[in-house]
Design brief:
Layout (H helix, E strand, L loop, with lengths): L6 E9 L2 E4 L14 E7 L4 E4 L5 E4 L5 E5 L4 E9 L2 E13 L4 E7 L4 E7 L5 E6 L2 E2 L6 E3 L4 E8 L5 E8 L18 E2 L23 E6 L5 E5 L21 E9 L5 E7 L2
Parallel strand pairs: 1-3, 16-20
Antiparallel strand pairs: 1-2, 3-6, 4-5, 4-7, 7-8, 9-10, 10-13, 11-12, 11-14, 14-15, 17-18, 17-19, 19-20
Length: 271
């Protein structure tokens, strides 16, 4: 799991026969269920720490750093207790442990797509990695042609994150003249408005038995265009999925259709 590293500073001055202390506040960071919460103790004597979830430990001036994992979300009172009188609270503070997402990945090798299943993912964001290299894909699924290790980091609205990995093998299919996907142009010139190379044209796509899926990415790997039922009549014309004009340059496409060999390649937009 990838999380922020939060900490709490508990301050206490312990005198013989008397416990004197001051309140403590959580430092910056997000407290998430299941992660290691750091506690730094400043004390001149022995104190007990009650983490508020039924777990206690002992702190002294030789052991000033502790880590504790809360297994349930909720609000907890963390207290420093007088070892001579454990019912006496030296100082305490209330902290909140937020719900963390729980993420699993599913490989749909038939269509070459990885999808996420997320629990506790309200308002989640996604960050994808391929063979430990970050991509710019920020969707809840990933369309792929290459075998390797894929990883996603999902962060929910609480700022808590979970990581899931999956090793996939890209499905290989034998190509024949009847099953090959053929792109007839590698240049788009939509700005010329001359009726030539205005659209990414796939040969005979209207005769496919199954929908043709087209994904187009910029050179940094960000998905800019997606169509799950592509046709040449209303296909890619140099606009993103929201209808905005893309900059001139080179883009990378991935095209698949069930029963056919998926292909990838580059197309240049000239304006």
């Amino acid at each position: 799991m990838r999380h922020l590293k939060p900490s709490i500073l508990l301050l206490s001055a312990f005198c013989v026969g008397n416990a004197m202390g001051q309140d403590f506040e959580p430092s910056s960071g997000t407290f998430c269920k299941g992660e290691a919460v750091e506690f730094n103790i400043s004390t001149s004597g022995l104190v007990y720490i009650n983490f508020g979830d039924g777990i206690e430990t002992v702190a002294d001036n030789a052991h000033s750093q502790f880590f504790h994992r809360y297994q349930s979300d909720g609000t907890y009172t963390v207290s420093l207790l007088n070892p001579a009188n454990p019912s006496e609270v030296i100082t305490s503070h209330s902290i909140t442990i937020a719900t963390a997402p729980s993420v699993t990945l599913v490989d749909d090798s038939k269509h070459g797509e990885i999808t996420t299943n997320v629990e506790n993912g309200d308002g989640e964001s996604y960050k994808w990695f391929f063979n430990d290299k970050e991509t710019q894909n920020n969707a809840n699924s990933l369309f792929y042609l290459e075998s390797g290790l894929y990883e996603v980091v999902v962060t929910n609205s609480n700022g808590c994150a979970d990581t899931a990995q999956i090793q996939v093998v890209a499905k290989s299919q034998e190509s024949t003249d009847s099953t090959a996907i053929i792109v007839l142009n590698n240049v788009l010139t939509p700005g010329l408005r001359d009726g030539v190379n205005d659209i990414l044209f796939i040969k005979d796509v209207g005769d496919y038995e199954n929908p043709c899926i087209v994904k187009i990415f910029n050179r940094r790997g960000k998905l800019v265009y997606s169509n799950n039922d592509y046709s040449n009549a209303d296909g890619f014309q140099g606009l993103d999925s929201d209808g905005n004009e893309l900059f001139a340059g080179t883009y990378y496409y991935i095209i698949k259709s069930e029963g056919r060999k998926g292909i990838s390649g580059f197309i240049d937009i000239l304006r």
